[in-house]
Amino acid sequence: MSANPSPTLPTAEQLRAEVREWLARNWTGLSKSEDPWSSSPERIAWLEKVVDEGYAVPTYPTEWFGRGYPTDLAAVIVKEFTAVKAPGAGQDKYNIPANTTLKLGSDALKHQLLRDFLVERARTCLLYSEPGAGSDLAGVRTTAIKHGDHWVVNGQKVWTSGAKTADYALLIARTDWDAPKHKGLSFFLLPMKQPGIDIRPLVQITGESHFNEVFITDATVPDENLLGGEGNGWRSLQTALAYERSIMGDTGRTSRNRSRADDLIALAREHGRLDDPAVRRRLAKVLAMRELNALNNARAKAATTQGTSSSIMSLGKLAMSRILHGEARMKTELIGAQALLSGSDNPEADDVNFLALNAFFTSIGGGTDQIQRNIIGERVLGLPKEPEADRDIPFRQARRS
Ligand SMILES: Cc1cc2nc3c(=O)[nH]c(=O)nc-3n(C[C@H](O)[C@H](O)[C@H](O)COP(=O)(O)OP(=O)(O)OC[C@H]3O[C@@H](n4cnc5c(N)ncnc54)[C@H](O)[C@@H]3O)c2cc1C
To answer: Which of 81, 87, 109, 373 gives the lowest tally of CB atoms within 10 Å of its CB?
Structure first.
């Protein structure tokens, strides 16, 4: 029996029984197969229910759709939802725009957008990377200039996942060219459905086309959509990046065909390799890494409060990158020459190839493995910082690629 930490909170057992009973009464499944880049009215209606019940973001305060629960109670809800494959719980972990708005937005902005983010009425994308500023994100040149009660934005972003379906973007832009590069930045929630936003799709290595170039010409953003205050963009961005790295450290996309290739052990058995001692050793290593990373992530999250710590989340993201590449290599080896096939006629090989290519999503997106190693070296291990010649001079004078 777990101890009840406060008389106003349920015990884990009470909460588990409550959630099970609620799901039994309300969850009948969603009829359509889900497109991750848009939300069906049926899905939105379900999410409305989850939000109203306080299950979407139980660690949020009660005035913002939460229950003021600690993370261990929130995990009870997620576990019950996961058991019946119901979406919508655990958004206090994975909903980047909602978490960032809760932490950095004004009350007016929270009233305007928080619920829409939680029920997926408002979709978002991340306007961070630029052709000359990926790893060196503080070098962005997209510029926002204040005009009265709004800002006018000009510039170009690239690799923007989900831009075509997004209603809002988390945008990092330069608001002061005379300040040093990290200090002249501000962070905004930019409305995407407006003239001046030109979105051009790019084809990925997997053959999918989820990310885009985004050209911004005189687009506007209200002053109230500034997150974390003018000139504090770098710090605000770190908050949002920590949420992103925490998600990427927890999960990785499995497959597109949902074939047997999803399950490493089943795949090894299917191909008659489960008794091979060398295969078993490597299998155990990959599975142990997954388990260890899950425990490490749980520990990191328990040790940090809302807002998380970017440096700790870097460890999980780096580990997940290793896990996904390791699993993909192992699966390729297990299916052997069949890995030369692809397409829906060969779902197993197609999934394995997809995994091998998609593993780069986690090792590049959200900051590359090398950048995570730099963060861990500097902020976790206390190693000397990389030399940065342009850190303290006005950005206008910095050498740019
Ligand atoms: C699937 C996917 C989805 C993405 N979605 C988005 C999105 O929605 N929004 C968005 O803004 N961006 C997105 N990105 C972009 C991603 O964040 C950048 O690609 C990433 O930060 C690297 O930047 P870059 O591509 O400019 O590479 P570069 O910064 O040019 O890096 C090139 C190589 O140099 C290495 N390197 C660079 N600097 C250092 C250093 N200081 N120390 C050691 N090594 C270094 C890098 O690790 C890398 O191997 C996405 C990327 C992918 C792959």
So the answer is: 373
